[in-house]
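Q: I'm building a small set of examples for a reading group on sequence design. Run inverse folding on the following structure and report the sequence directly after it, with nothing in between.
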């Protein structure tokens, strides 16, 4: 016989969007239950993958209240790095990254509410820290203290102190619908079936990136066989059970966030492993200051078309399209001297050599092709000031190549040379559900909102179509998780 529970609001997931929804619902004093497929040690989903939230601000004065006792040097450092990122600027940057295809209503809320969301996070008792140094950061001048891992652990403590129940190792399978209204979830555990009754259900349990069958169906080859940066638990049940009750599929179902990662990265990276630093060992984000070649020694992409924060989510796709799904990031001694290479050569898959020919041989690249590519690249670099960094483009470019590099063009001529083997690591899928922009209530194909059903986080479609900005997923999850929590708790109270 199935075990049964009853709550006012049921939240599915334990990542940033789910916890934001739970905290917001808690403000309306409703009875909340939380379920998660993962065990407790690996709760949190893909939210552990970042350490910052990308938001709009009009001056550094907006940042100071978010930080505990910032020093004068930190305030000046933030001002020098990025004195402002106005709502209009951030909107334009994100829309440009998505080729103008983002849902403008969703993106407007995402941007215009971003600073308010940051302030709300701060009001929950968690602070931010200056993070304006490092040439390969994501272009955010402050970071979450302790990263998102620290933020989530803070949230868990708040909720556990309130005795809000977490049901771990519990996989949601089907929405319970009564007369058109979602009134609960059927789930399964290793011990059998579980029925959760609820007046409102919030789905914040990720996309389908960990489901090879769904990746093959919606994204095609080679997505079905690729490695995943995140957890193995995001297998799409939140999406499939919503579509089964008439939810509108929305956004870019044939596209996803895919970034450069070590060729020998693990198939998945669990939160329990990330706490030991396993995630940082796999990311390969120094590529804007490299040239990337395939096994034939040929460049295939403009490595510096924008700052890293706006390109890394797409760059992995370009790598996957290369022979064997692999590429190589090449640097010379200047890049290491300028602190532009973030990799530990003792743990990264790569090598160092005193000649380009030796480097190519060790990496398994065609030596003639690679040497010719480097020669042509060096000769094509134009006059201009090299000023590599995460906050602005420097215009140091090449001319006359099939793939001109438009920024950060550094010659490859001073030994020792370094090369690192990379592949594309998938982070999350961009296809999701259509939601009401104000309440995060899921829309029905018939043109109405589905009573009792809300979605936030990776399940929500329409924001990311072709591109992304570092820290934007966590921001979107917090913004609409909060909205979903407020709306669902009000609905549960009959308001």
């Amino acid at each position: 016989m199935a075990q049964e529970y009853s709550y006012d609001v049921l939240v599915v997931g334990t990542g940033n969007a789910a916890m934001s929804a739970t905290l917001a619902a808690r403000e309306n004093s409703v009875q909340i239950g939380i379920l998660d497929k993962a065990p407790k040690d690996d709760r949190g989903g893909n939210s552990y993958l970042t350490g910052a939230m990308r938001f709009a601000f009009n001056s550094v004065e907006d940042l100071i209240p978010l930080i505990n006792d910032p020093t004068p040097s930190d305030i000046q450092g933030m001002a020098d790095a990025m004195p402002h990122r106005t709502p209009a600027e951030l909107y334009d940057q994100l829309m440009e990254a998505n080729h103008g295809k983002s849902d403008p209503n969703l993106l407007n809320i995402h941007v215009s509410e971003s600073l308010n969301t940051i302030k709300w996070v701060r009001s929950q008792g968690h602070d931010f820290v200056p993070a304006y140094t490092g040439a390969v950061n994501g272009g955010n001048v402050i970071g979450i203290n302790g990263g998102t891992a620290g933020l989530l652990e803070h949230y868990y403590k708040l909720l556990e102190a309130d005795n809000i129940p977490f049901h771990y190792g519990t996989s949601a399978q089907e929405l319970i619908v009564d007369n058109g209204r979602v009134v609960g979830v059927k789930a399964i555990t290793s011990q059998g079936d579980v029925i959760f009754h609820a007046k409102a259900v919030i789905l914040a349990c990720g996309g389908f990136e960990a489901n090879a069958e769904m990746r093959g169906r919606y994204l095609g080859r080679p997505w079905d066989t690729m490695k995943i940066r995140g957890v193995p638990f995001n297998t799409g049940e939140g999406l499939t059970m919503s579509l089964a009750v008439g939810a509108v599929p929305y956004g870019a179902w044939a596209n996803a966030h895919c970034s450069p990662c070590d060729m020998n990265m693990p198939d998945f990276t669990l939160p329990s492993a990330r706490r030991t630093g396993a995630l940082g060992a796999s990311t390969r984000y120094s590529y804007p200051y490299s040239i990337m070649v395939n096994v034939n020694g040929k460049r295939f992409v403009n490595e510096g078309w924008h700052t890293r924060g706006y390109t890394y989510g797409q760059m992995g796709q370009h790598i996957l399209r290369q022979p064997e799904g692999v590429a190589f990031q090449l640097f010379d001694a200047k890049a290491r001297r300028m602190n532009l290479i973030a990799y530990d050569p003792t743990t990264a898959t790569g090598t160092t050599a005193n000649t380009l020919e030796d480097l190519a041989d060790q990496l398994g690249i065609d030596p003639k092709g690679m040497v010719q590519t480097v020669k042509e690249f060096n000769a094509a670099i134009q006059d201009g000031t090299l000023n590599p960094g995460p906050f602005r483009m420097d215009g140091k470019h090449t001319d006359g190549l099939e793939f001109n590099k438009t920024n950060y063009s550094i010659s490859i001529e001073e030994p020792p040379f370094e090369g690192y083997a990379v592949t594309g690591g998938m982070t999350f899928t961009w296809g999701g559900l259509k939601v009401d922009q104000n309440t995060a209530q899921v829309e029905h194909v018939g043109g109405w909102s589905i009573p009792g059903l809300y979605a936030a986080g990776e399940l929500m479609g329409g924001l990311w179509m072709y591109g992304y900005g570092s820290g934007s997923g966590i921001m979107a999850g917090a913004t609409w998780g909060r909205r979903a929590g407020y709306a669902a708790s009000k609905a549960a109270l009959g308001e």
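The domain at 259-424 is CATH 3.90.700.10 (Flavocytochrome C3; Chain A, domain 1).
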